[in-house]
Amino acid sequence: MNKALKNPITYMAFIIPTLALYAVFFVYPVIVSFYYGFFQWDGITDKVFTGFDNFARLWQDEVFRKALANNFYFMAFSLAVNIPLVFLISIMISKARRMRDFYKSAVFVPVVISTATVAILFGVLYNYDSGLVNQLIRLAAPDDWAREWLSDPKLAMLSILIANAWQNIGFFIVLCLAAIMNIPKEIVEAAKIDGVNGWQETWTLTLPLIRPVLFVMLLLTVSGTMKVLDIVQIMTNGGPFQSTEVMSTYMLKVGFRSMELGYGSAIGVAMFLIILVLTGVLQRITKREEVQY
């Protein structure tokens, strides 16, 4: 067994299939998208080389600019609301003396539900006539306070953000909670001996020590929100009036409905480059933040 583990062929036998799958399902599609981005093509007739016209068209496309802004809105909401909420709930669960395992399981349940199910569920909850949200509003306020949550351009994106947060926040809570519980008890006890209260412990001890995990959460949030697709596609399909259009939904419409595969590929390349830049910046920041117990 030891001889097998020391043999490089053993490692290659496990690595090569993984690399092959990665190349087929990630590297190859990226290369092909870059290639098709330089052509005007409907998927049937011959491709026509257009150079950088598709990429230049992006910055003149009002719908693409709106979709890009919606992606950044999605990201800003997740960073400003979801991450602080995750930290707060994680602290509360870590302080619980009873039923801690139940709380961890309860917050994680939405994560295992498929996005399609979550989108349909919230679509029912947001229904104007019979949805639970409007029913509760009618009980506590005048009837005209009820809203068409997914049909109102001012409320549709917020409604999707709430549904997305409900589904994904549990994963980050478990991740953050694991980091909090991993803090050595000796450090916490020493801080209490020095007279540190609960509030000071949270902000001067817990938060700095779990900073690497928070950066992982930021990285996952940024990359996830910039390529969000399924929940928007199912709940609103980018409407009403492109108020919830994101780059992924717009790419699908352009590439497979309008049959402009070249321009759709250019949108996909733009998404890839934007995510690459944002995650690269975050990774450089992460390398500067090292925590030692």
What does this protein structure show overall?
There is one protein chain. The chain has 293 residues and is mainly alpha-helical. It has a single domain, classed as MetI-like fold (Orthogonal Bundle). It has helices at residues 2-6, 8-36, 53-58, 62-95, 100-112, 115-125, 132-140, 156-181, 185-193, 198-209, 211-226, 230-235, 247-257, 261-288; strands spanning 39-40, 48-49. The chain has a two-stranded antiparallel ribbon. The radius of gyration is 24 Å and the shape is globular. The mean pLDDT is 88. It is found in: Cell membrane.
Quantity of strands, as a count: 2
Shape field: globular
Q: Identify the strand order in the major beta sheet.
A: 1-2
Q: Determine the N-to-C terminus distance.
A: 36 Å
CATH C-level label = Mainly Alpha
CATH topology: MetI-like fold
The tally of helices reads 14
Short description:
It comes from Paenibacillus arenilitoris. 73% of the residues lie in helices and 1% in strands.
Keywords:
293 residues, mainly alpha, MetI-like fold, two-stranded antiparallel sheet, 73% helix
Topology (elements, then pairings):
Blueprint: H1 2-6, H2 8-36, E1 39-40, E2 48-49, H3 53-58, H4 62-95, H5 100-112, H6 115-125, H7 132-140, H8 156-181, H9 185-193, H10 198-209, H11 211-226, H12 230-235, H13 247-257, H14 261-288
Antiparallel strand pairs: 1-2
Helix pairs in contact: 2-14, 4-8, 4-11, 5-8, 6-8, 11-14, 13-14
